[in-house]
Amino acid sequence: MTPAPSRRLACPACLRPQSACICRWVTPVTQAVEVLILQHPLEVDNPKGSARLLHLSLPHSRLVTGEVFDDLPALLADPPDSAKLNLLLYPETPQNQPPGITPRQLAPGVLDDPARLRLVVLDGTWRKSRKMLYNNPLLLQLPRLALEDVGVSHYLIRKAHRPDQLSTLEATCAALAQLNGGAAPLQPLLAAFDGFVAQQMGYRSLRSTGSL
């Protein structure tokens, strides 16, 4: 009997093969907003994905994988010690909104206390994230946070239709900068992300030459 091929050992933290471990780029940053990352299943094993690095770098974050989240009410529930306002990181799309479902509008001043905010992030391509959104009606009802004045993405390892289409990590950092009043605390993580991108581009170069 031919033995089954052995799987490469995976890092227990980043879940990648140890030869491609990204833990060196994990950069914990201090910020007050809680982050809930809802990851599409097809992104879990994608070596180009940035959500795991983001999660490992944000102490107040949670990463949950799925397409339909039956436990979404519990994920969005308030903790015992404080009330949280859930914000969906997603652009306003009124023309694509299902009839009868409208995102809640934010009252003035509710974003003034970052410690009382929970940012909900969808990790997937635009097509996958739209499917996740419409498969989970509770997400459609959340007030939305749209990004302002985003720069050019450094996410050179994945095809984008526009220069300002950001990775999950970049988009979340941009949102946290808006909510926390500045991007300075997040700069070390963004610099580490550049290193992660360079690492992935190096692997791609080795594959193209047959060296990997």
Describe this structure in words.
Strand 1, helix 1 (51-57) and strand 2 form a beta-alpha-beta unit. The protein has six helices and five strands; from the N terminus they run βαβαββααβαα. It has a domain at 18-75 and 82-91 and 113-192. It is globular and about 50 Å long. Helices cover 29% and strands 12% of the residues. It has a five-stranded parallel β-sheet with strand order 2-1-4-3-5. 27% of the residues are buried. The chain has helices at 51-57, 72-75, 126-135, 137-141, 168-180, 187-209, and strands at residues 34-39, 61-65, 85-89, 117-123, 144-145. The chain has 212 residues and is an alpha/beta fold. The longest helix has 23 residues, at 187-209.
Multimerization state: single chain
Number of helical segments? 6
Distance between the termini: 29 Å
Order of helices and strands: EHEHEEHHEHH
Which labels suit this protein?
globular; 212 residues; 29% helix
Question: Secondary-structure map with pairings?
Answer:
Blueprint: E1 34-39, H1 51-57, E2 61-65, H2 72-75, E3 85-89, E4 117-123, H3 126-135, H4 137-141, E5 144-145, H5 168-180, H6 187-209
Parallel strand pairs: 1-2, 1-4, 3-4, 3-5
How would you summarize what this structure contains?
By secondary structure, this protein is of the alpha/beta class. It has helices spanning 51-57, 72-75, 126-135, 137-141, 168-180, 187-209; strands at 34-39, 61-65, 85-89, 117-123, 144-145.
